[in-house]
Write a structure and sequence with these properties.
The complex is a heterodimer of chains A (163) and B (262). With 163 residues, chain A is an alpha+beta fold. Chain A has helices at 23-30, 87-94, 104-117, 123-129, 141-150, and strands at residues 2-8, 11-17, 49-52, 55-58, 71-73. In chain A, strand 1 and strand 2 (11-17) form a beta hairpin. With 262 residues, chain B is α+β, with helices and mostly antiparallel strands. The chains are: A alpha+beta (163), B alpha+beta (262).
């Protein structure tokens, strides 16, 4: 076992990792941050997306020891300081961007990464960027709407999906 | 995944030394190696991470040659190569999805030589040079078969040199779940001739379609390819496409790539 130290959501956190320990396992089992989900475990579904040094990655396909010393942002770091929902989270709630919620941590993290790169994405850009995040409930329409809303753009043109 | 020892050297020399150890394998972005280890298709005793070596990262232009460090992630190539070699940047920006592109690297993709991967088509289609810690290998000599390359045990790709063409385009018929190329064609026009590389088709991995190159040397138009086709024999077949379907796609995607290159 090797000691791994990360700056997680602004706080320095340490734990023990084997060579094979995945970042997602380290976050969930060693640091107790269970907001990041394991969906497929094959880097297809995107439920495990977190930011490593500001870049979205699939934490089920990154070794904990390989990012030792990095700055990591998880879904637990997306809320405002007073505990209220962050802009992207609030938009997902307002626009019914989730049903079962399992994919939501990854959806929120990917959406936040998109908005950091491209603050006013088009609907097509949002759909394209989220292609590595799979949702089996919503049909994506309301997720796209939530991301548009989080970027401060008008969502009325998207119409009303089943809500 | 079976357990292993993890090493992350800071220099190429340290990495080469570590790779000399028993049962050691290099790890770049890990977007292919880690999933294959989870499936227990691969179980190295030691993984040597190459992502901590600063000298292996970056994109720079030297004359009319674009030099890309082997550990440069796809997302960085997609951005930094865009103005100099847009076809290559577009290819890099179409691999996997954004999170995969932030980890996966050009060196890892070339060393793996997946028969349906995008980067081998770019390297072969551009007549690139693969630079390792010991030598330089022409792309024409590098890809030796499905998942096979000219790399020796313990040899590490350090950079890839791409001559910048007059025009080029890569078109892939995308496998919708994996986003690998069901079949893809990379077409590049240089002063001394046209190169056409096909991925996702042959059981031998990426290959040059020389008949198409000769036709395009006479006339760089999609029409110049009319009547040209590849045999189904030797093409891959799976639930996504038969060998005959892939052979057909080779011609379709090459024509589309020529049109896209303009």
């Amino acid at each position: 076992m090797t000691k791994v130290t990360l700056t997680v959501n602004g706080r320095s956190m340490s734990g023990e990792a084997e060579g094979r320990t995945l970042l997602v396992s380290f976050l969930r089992e060693e640091l107790g941050l269970t907001g990041t989900h394991v969906g497929c475990d094959t880097s297809q579904c995107g439920a495990c997306v977190v930011h490593v040094d500001g870049k979205a990655v699939k934490s089920c396909t990154v070794l904990a020891q390989d990012v030792n010393g990095a700055s990591v942002t998880t879904i637990e770091g997306m809320a405002n300081e007073d505990g209220s929902l962050g802009v992207v989270q609030q938009a997902f709630q307002d626009h019914h961007g989730l049903q079962c919620g399992f994919c939501t941590p990854g959806m929120v993290m990917s959406s936040a990464a998109l908005l950091a790169e491209n603050p006013k994405p088009t609907e097509a850009e949002i759909r394209h960027y989220l292609e590595g995040n799979i949702c089996r409930c919503t049909g994506y329409h309301n997720i796209v709407k939530a991301v548009l809303a989080a970027s401060g753009q008008d969502v009325s043109a998207l119409g009303v999906a089943a809500e | 995944m079976y357990n292993f020892d993890f090493v992350k050297p800071a220099t190429l020399d340290e990495a080469v030394a570590a790779l000399g150890g028993e049962d050691a394998q290099p790890l770049s972005g890990g977007q292919t190696l880690l999933p294959s280890m989870k499936q227990r298709l691969n179980a190295p005793g030691v993984l040597i991470s190459l992502t901590g070596i600063a000298a292996l990262k970056g994109v720079k232009l030297e004359g009319r040659t674009l030099v890309i460090g082997a550990a440069t992630p796809h997302a960085v190539v997609a951005t930094e190569a865009a103005s100099v070699y847009p076809a290559l940047a577009a290819l890099a920006g179409g691999i996997g999805d954004p999170a995969v592109r932030n980890r996966g690297t050009i060196g890892g993709s070339l060393a793996n030589n997946d028969p349906s991967a995008c980067y081998p088509a770019a390297a072969l289609g551009s007549g690139a040079t693969i630079v390792t810690n010991t030598r330089e290998i022409a792309a024409d000599d590098f890809f030796t078969g499905m998942f096979e390359t000219a790399l020796e045990q313990g040899e590490i790709i350090t950079a890839v040199k791409f001559p910048v063409p007059e025009k080029a385009a890569y078109l892939k018929f995308q496998q919708p779940a994996s986003r690998f190329a069901l079949t893809g064609a990379y077409v590049a026009k240089y002063q001394d001739g046209v190169r056409v590389a096909i991925t996702g088709a042959s059981e031998g991995g990426v290959f040059r379609w020389t008949e198409a190159e000769e036709a395009l040397n006479r006339s760089f138009t999609a029409e110049a390819l009319n009547g040209l086709s590849l045999p189904a024999e030797g093409m891959m077949g799976d639930l996504h496409g038969t060998p005959a379907y892939r052979a057909h796609l080779c011609a379709v995607m090459t024509r589309r790539a020529v049109t896209a290159a303009g």
